Structures are given as structure tokens and as C-alpha cells.
Amino acid sequence: MDLLTRKAAPGDGAAIAGVVADAWRSGYRGILPQGFLDRLDFADRVDVWEDSIRAAWNDGRPVDGPEHGPEMFVADRSGEVVGVTTVGASRDESVPDGGELWMLNVAAAHWGSGVGTALLDTARHALEHRGFHRPLLWVFEVNERARSLYERSGWQPDGATRHLEIADQELLEIRMRL
Q: Residue 58: its pLDDT value, please?
């Protein structure tokens, strides 16, 4: 099955929502409350993602360049969206001039198949193209699967941490840098 990464295109929003919901349900099992995970569908995000995707396109062509806000890329395997990543300027106030991997999600059926690595490579190149040569990401400290993927791709914890509350549960996030 052929795998390619490409800029997310108008019409990908629903597939992205499905991938993110599946990745969260599987990846955060045992980390977040099961009832919360069972209710996830991200359908309320489809319009937001579609608006963001459309903003990155002009007359049927993808817009290129850092001045156009965050960029979303998908992993497409034989015509099916199986992963998604978003990159943009840092949202971390302590790194105001940095770039950030905002999101990376892969459908659970495709874990271990190279999709995550392909998306990380795409994200890194997109950030470098924007002039961000030492980007950052945040990951739950207890998310060993994700941390392992990031570390195999050259990301390392830099010592910064923060707390995030999701579903009435406080989780520690660690910051990683390339």
C-alpha cells in the first residue's frame, strides 16, 4: 500500500476528525477516563479544520509560506487519510520565535507502519522551510508510545513541563525539542 504525505486539502476535515478520534481513543486508553474517550468524535472540529485547510489553499493550489498560519498535512495510504499533523509558530510563551509541532495523530490500525515517522519528517521539513530549525512539541509524560516515536526521530525532552487538565484529570506534559 502506497503511503504519501501531502498538504491537507479541502474535504479532508471529516477524515481528519475520524483519525484524531481513533488515535485518542486508542492512544489515551488508561491515561484519560474511558467514558470521556468513548464519547470522542471530534465532529464539532470538522468545520474548524476545513476553514483552516481552505485558508491554506488559493484557487485550488496550496499556498506556500510561513505568513499563512499553521499548516496541516495528512498521511494518505491508497487514498485513505490515516494520519495527520499540524505545525506552526510556537504557542509556548517561553519560545515566542520558535516553531511547534501542534498535533500528530495516526489511526491505531496504522501504528508501527511508518506513518508517524513519515508525518514527523514532513512536519520537520515544513518547520525548517519556515525558518524554525529547533522546533518544539508537548507530549503527556505518561504517553510512552508517543515519546518513543519522537525520541527515535531525534526529539529530546528539554526539561520544561506544564500541567494540562482534560476530562477533570490533570496530566503532566513535557516539552521536547529537535
A: 64
Task: Report d(CA 114, CA 10) in Å as an integer.
Answer: 25
Alpha-carbon span 30 to 128, nearest angstrom: 35
The amino acid at 129:
H
If one counts every other C-beta atom within 10 angstroms of the C-beta of residue 18, the result is 19
CA distances from 13 to 16, 19, 127, 143, 163 (A): 5, 10, 22, 26, 29
Q: How far apart are CA 174 and CA 41, in angstroms?
A: 26
C-alpha span between 164 and 171 (Å, rounded): 5
Average pLDDT, integer, range 42-47: 86
Q: What is the pLDDT of residues 129-140, one digit of tens each?
A: 989 988 999 999
Query: pTM above the 0.85 mark?
Result: yes
* Burial tier of 17 (Cβ tally within 10 Å: 0-12, 13-18, 19+): buried
C-alpha grid cell, residue 97: 520565535
